[in-house]
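Subject: design request, 329 residues
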């Protein structure tokens, strides 16, 4: 039985990524959309053949809606998630689900009390090649994991966001990009995250638009960078082990990785012209994989890959990073 989904928030994330993924997930049907800007809601609804509302409360009164995707700016995530749960709807919410660990705990408690699913949307954690990397690590193909390095280089000007939350403070880049990094790192290392050092730079915008960080994740050194001003976007992950290493780019090459072992470099996975064209059309497989997983969790077919305990660990680290960041320029 298809899961009937309502979308709250019809901005760039919804139109560029979510709708494209949902077209390919036969298990889910979008039946309603809501946005404060009625024209946005109308356009999304017409694209998928759904009803549209200007108010999220009207959408939550729609008895056909079983689950809700919250795709709004982060300041509204906790409030809308809690309202949706109280209305008896399962929720999948863009990252981060709350701006405090306490908010994550409130969401977890409400979902448990009502027997509903509340799941954070961390799409890169569902990238196909990451599954392969985790399998190789589990098989000890690179021995013990010694260090993890991650660089998420983005181009905000090319994305052309419709909302301004990213420019409301120097911590916005942490809230925007670090959930991607930490959700991937936590699957590799575990969720015990400790912040050591964070530095930020204002290079092209009046707020911090580049950061460098050092953390410990599961006792393993985790370092890297995040940027809004990169020329070529990428999401590079380098896992160094006692007997080898794994390198991958979750953004540009979501189906391939490089395994180094015993001095021999080996490429695992494959791309192909069709897959490259899909990426150029902004059809990254991680969005599709995450929505299929959400369906299966709601239907009780598998446990959540990233639940609210992981989200609380991520949000706690985000808060600590924002409070401790040293800013240059």
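Subject: RE: design request

Done. Sequence follows.
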């Amino acid at each position: 039985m298809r899961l009937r989904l309502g979308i709250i928030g019809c901005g760039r994330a919804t139109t560029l990524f979510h709708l494209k993924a949902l077209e390919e997930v036969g298990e889910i049907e979008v039946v309603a959309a809501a946005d404060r800007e009625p024209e946005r809601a109308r356009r999304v609804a017409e694209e998928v053949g759904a009803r549209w509302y200007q108010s999220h409360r009207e959408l939550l009164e729609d008895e056909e809606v079983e689950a809700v995707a919250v795709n709004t700016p982060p300041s509204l995530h906790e409030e809308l998630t809690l309202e949706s749960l109280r209305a008896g709807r399962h929720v999948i919410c863009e990252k981060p689900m709350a701006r405090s660990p306490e908010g994550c705990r409130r969401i977890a408690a409400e979902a448990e009390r009502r027997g509903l699913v509340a799941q954070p949307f961390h799409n890169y954690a569902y990238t196909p090649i990451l599954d392969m990397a985790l399998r190789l690590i589990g098989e000890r193909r690179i021995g013990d994991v010694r260090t993890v390095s991650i660089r998420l280089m983005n181009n905000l000007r090319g994305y052309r966001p419709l909302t301004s939350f990213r420019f409301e403070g120097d911590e916005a880049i942490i809230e925007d990009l670090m959930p991607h990094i930490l959700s991937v790192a936590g699957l590799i290392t575990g969720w015990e995250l400790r912040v050591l050092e964070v530095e930020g730079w204002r290079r092209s915008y009046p707020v911090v638009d580049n950061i460098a960080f050092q953390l410990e994740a599961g006792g393993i050194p985790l370092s890297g960078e995040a940027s809004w001003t990169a020329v070529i976007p990428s999401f590079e992950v380098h896992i160094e082990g006692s007997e080898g290493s794994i390198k991958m780019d979750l953004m540009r090459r979501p189906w391939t990785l490089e395994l180094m072992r015993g001095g021999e470099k080996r490429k695992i996975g494959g791309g192909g012209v069709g897959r490259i064209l899909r990426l150029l059309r902004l059809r990254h497989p991680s969005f599709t994989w995450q929505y299929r997983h959400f369906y299966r969790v709601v239907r009780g077919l598998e446990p959540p890959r990233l639940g609210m305990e992981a989200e609380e660990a991520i949000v706690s680290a985000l808060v600590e990073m924002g409070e401790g960041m040293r800013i240059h320029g």
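The two ends are 54 Å apart (CA to CA).
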